[in-house]
Amino acid sequence: MDNSICQVYEEIQSLEEEIKLLAEKYEDNQHESTFFSDEEIVMSIKSFQREFQRGSKAHESPSDLKSELESLEADLSFLMKFTGIQFTSHYKKTLEKTKNRTVQKHRLSGNCHSLSFQLEFQLLEIQNKESVSAVITDLSIIMESGEDSDMSKFVSSTEEHGNLLTFFRSLSSYAEWYEHRRCTFLHFK
Q1: Average pLDDT estimate for 37-42
Q2: What percent of the chain has a predicted confidence (pLDDT) above 70?
Q3: CB 115 within 8 A of CB 88
Q4: Do 33 and 88 share a domain, yes or no?
Q5: Are 123 and 106 in contact (CB under 8 A)?
Q6: What's an example GO BP annotation here (predicted)?
Q7: Positive/negative CA dihedral, 66, 50, 166, 136
Q8: H or E stretch including 52?
Q9: pLDDT tens track for 61-70
């Protein structure tokens, strides 16, 4: 009987140590995500705004193209580290194009931390004299984590409302915690 009590006690100590290590790892990840200062985030946003405002201006030389490409790659790398979202493929097809109306079909796939996802939607762009408005229609989301009923409800709601921004924000948080839960449950198996 003493031997089994010692084994249980040793297992409890081992679990406590692993919990401590996981907590430290979590803290490191939190510090890593807050590693980017407000100034860096603002600089990245301003860089994207400059690129969109510049539009399709002609580039003067290949070195300009190379430096612009390096800048865009750095911005993309920053966003992937910041959100945990990485796109692996993108397909775009123009279904209809008129003077002030464009309909495009998009198919995206990628992963966020350890969760894979696929999106398919149509983007309707309507151009008025002053502005361009975009509406997402026919949104379809396929995710790996089908066993979680809360996530399934969230995906259904997102598909119904067509709100991609909310989807990506929530996916980033959910996937981070999903990974923590997965690691914890693997320990107990």
Answers
A1: 67
A2: 81
A3: no
A4: no
A5: yes
A6: CENP-A containing chromatin assembly
A7: negative
A8: helix 38-54
A9: 777 788 888 8
